[in-house]
Amino acid sequence: MRIDIITCLPRLLEGPFSDSILKRAQEKGLAKVELHDLRKYATDKHHRIDDYAFGGGAGMVLMIEPVANCIRELKSQRDYDEVIYMSPDGQLLTQQVANELSLKGNIMILCGHYKGVDERIREHFITREISIGDYVLSGGELAAAVLTDAVIRLLPGVLSDETSALTDSFQDGLVAPPVYTRPAKFEDMEVPEVLLSGHEKKIEDWRFEQAVQRTEKRRPGLISKSK
Ligand code: ADE
User: Fold this and answer.
1) What is the residue with the minimal CA distance to atom 10 of ligand 1?
2) Which of 8, 62, 85, 87 has the most ligand 1 atoms within 8 A of CB, as the residue to mutate?
3) pLDDT tens across 133-184, in order?
4) Fewer CB in 10 Å around end: N or C, the chain?
5) Is 146 in the pocket of ligand 1 (CB under 6 A)?
6) What is the dihedral of CA 6, 8, 11, 17, to 10 degrees?
7) Phi first, then psi: what are they for 139, rounded to 5°?
8) pTM above 0.90, yes or no
9) pLDDT tens-digit series, residues 187-214
């Protein structure tokens, strides 16, 4: 899978993709993340990428030309399954959305900034808009990093034990059950006995029960949604 990210702050995104799982996924050739600096696509001599909003009002708007130039250049190199705009008024990112996007081949992501992007970009170039939550970030970069992480970790072979993505919270409409590791007893705090029993079926049943109880208590909305 290939993800192209268009941003005016590429440095903000270099960190998340050069470490840990995202780095390894790229080294293994399972995913490729490319950053594109919007400023390189500016058309005037000052390399402007933003301008005042027509009609007035505070805040700058990303200009249509650099964004359109960049999207068109990328599209001339390959076909894209989605051109996504990160925006607080987009579709809420859920595990289901991440699962769906992980099945695509090439994705382009545009990070918004300032007051947003010229609306004509959203109307004519963007196929999908995604929000990572009902709050406003300074720009779409961190949101794009969240989306990219959520998608890439689902690709077969990215996680060392493939089943671990399948047992994540939300994959079955439930949050994950509690987990423990050694030592089995710390001060007077003990690990539930069943997990030490070696009885696979009992452990599986206990985990499922715990996941259901946790979901009912912490995220009751998830259960009613999956019914
Ligand atoms: N840009 C600013 N806030 C955002 C959010 N919540 N989700 C996606 N992109 C954003």
Assistant:
1) 87
2) 87
3) 999 999 999 999 999 999 999 999 999 876 678 778 787 889 999 999 999 9
4) C
5) no
6) -20
7) -165, 175
8) yes
9) 999 999 999 999 999 999 999 999 999 9
Q: What is the 3-state secondary structure (H, E, C) of the chain?
A: CEEEEEECCHHHHHHHHCCHHHHHHHHCCCCEEEEEEHHHHCCCCCCCCEEECCCCCCCEEECHHHHHHHHHHHHHHCCCCEEEEEEEEEEECCHHHHHHHHCCCEEEEEECECCCECHHHHHHCCCEEEECCCCCCCECHHHHHHHHHHHHCCCCCCCCCCHHHHCCCCCCCCCCCCCCCCCCEECCEECCHHHHCCCHHHHHHHHHHHHHHHHHHHCHHHHHHHC
Q: Is 116 in the pocket of ligand 1 (CB under 6 A)?
A: no
Nearest-atom index, ligand 1, CA of 136: 3
CB atoms within 10 A of CB 219: 16
For ligand 1, whether the C-beta of 137 sits within 6 Å is yes
* 8 Å CB contact between 86 and 143: yes
Phi, psi of 108 (to 5 degrees): -110, 140
